[in-house]
């Protein structure tokens, strides 16, 4: 996949460009169906499948308190590439760009720079200043300028609408089975391992890899999770506590993960953590001994869950390395 992070880097329109536009937060099953349609239509044109998205997410600029994102830009790029897209255009979004009219976006960017031959959009997509670029506008513009517009309808899984908004709600509720159903994969957090208080191993007896969670990011329901940990080309089981460690009076939000059968020093190294199941809420214990007893019980339950999901975990592991 060819990645462009500036429109100025596109020197000429793409051959037979079949294009879709959107924010694609989470790259959920609905987005994946849309990408499949784009790839199929580009193949019929013997042309180029093109995805246009924005960074940061427009709402992070226009109403930053109104949204918590499912995926990082890095993860979004990875997932779009796996969908078989030829070209990804990530347009830098700021308040100046937000003032672009829908007509100017179509004429100057979609037609002038990208060379759209066909356009595919989701059923609820709108863009441009004041969200003028709705479905009706795009269809009318397509008739005027000679490019067909295909609208991909809403997708449901077991009666649930697949949408980024619904996935955010489910993540906040800790309903990881339903999150996985709508995403088509496990929900993942990622980052570099931070050096913490080092009480996990020395005091409690269970060393942890710690990831800082920003209050501005989408935070899963606090508590203990069964996890799959991806590090350095291998996958491991584990249990993670997402919260503030009330037993020791902490206030910083962090994901502390005990990785099974693992002894490497990974401070400062990147890891990925798939959240499989929420086991229990965060509890303030009387001290390290009571906490350690509960962790032992959590580990046993987690090992049982992992043993029962071996096939799914193997596929998940392979997906994380198939780039």
Number of helices in the DSSP assignment: 11
Strand content: 25-35%
Order of helices and strands: EEHEHHEHHEHEEEHHEHEEEEEHH
| Percent helix range | 25-40%
What is Rg? 22 Å
Distance between the termini: 11 Å
Order of strands in the sheet with the most strands?
1-4-3-2-5-6
Secondary structure: number of strands: 14
Overall geometry: elongated
The chain-level structural class is: alpha/beta
Average predicted confidence as pLDDT? 92
Query: Sheet bearing the most strands, described?
Result: 6 strands, parallel
Low-confidence segments: none
Give a quick summary of the entry.
The protein is α/β, with parallel strands linked by helices. The protein has eleven helices and 14 strands. The strands form three sheets. The protein has a six-stranded parallel β-sheet, sandwiched between helices. Strands 9-14-11-12-13-10 form a six-stranded antiparallel β-sheet.
């Amino acid at each position: 996949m060819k990645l462009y992070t500036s429109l100025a880097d596109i020197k000429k329109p793409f051959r037979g460009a079949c294009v879709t536009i959107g924010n694609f937060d989470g790259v959920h099953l609905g987005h994946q169906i849309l990408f499949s349609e784009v790839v199929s239509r580009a193949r019929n044109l013997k042309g180029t499948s093109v995805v246009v998205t924005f960074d940061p997410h427009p709402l992070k600029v226009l109403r930053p308190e109104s949204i918590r994102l499912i995926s990082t830009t890095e993860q979004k790029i990875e997932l779009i590439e796996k969908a078989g897209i030829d070209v990804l255009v990530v347009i830098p979004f700021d308040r100046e760009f937000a003032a672009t009219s829908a007509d100017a976006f179509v004429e100057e960017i979609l037609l002038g720079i990208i060379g759209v031959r066909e356009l595919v959009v989701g059923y609820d997509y709108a863009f441009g200043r004041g969200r003028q670029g709705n479905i009706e506008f795009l269809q009318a513009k397509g008739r005027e300028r000679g490019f067909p517009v295909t609208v991909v309808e809403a997708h449901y899984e077991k009666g649930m609408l697949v949408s980024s908004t619904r996935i955010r709600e489910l993540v906040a509720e800790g309903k990881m089975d339903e999150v996985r159903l709508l995403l088509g994969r496990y929900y993942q957090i990622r980052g570099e391992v931070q050096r913490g208080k080092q009480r996990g191993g020395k005091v409690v007896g269970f060393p942890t890899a710690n990831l800082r969670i920003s209050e501005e990011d989408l935070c899963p329901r606090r508590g203990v999770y069964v996890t799959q940990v991806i590090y350095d080309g291998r996958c491991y089981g584990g249990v993670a506590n997402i919260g503030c460690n009330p037993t020791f009076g902490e206030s910083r939000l962090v994901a502390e993960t005990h990785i099974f059968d693992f002894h490497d020093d990974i401070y400062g190294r990147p890891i990925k953590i798939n959240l499989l199941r929420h086991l229990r809420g965060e509890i303030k214990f009387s001290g390290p001994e009571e906490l350690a007893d509960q962790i032992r019980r959590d580990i046993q339950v987690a090992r049982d869950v992992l043993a029962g999901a071996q096939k799914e975990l193997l596929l998940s592991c392979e997906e994380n390395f198939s780039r």
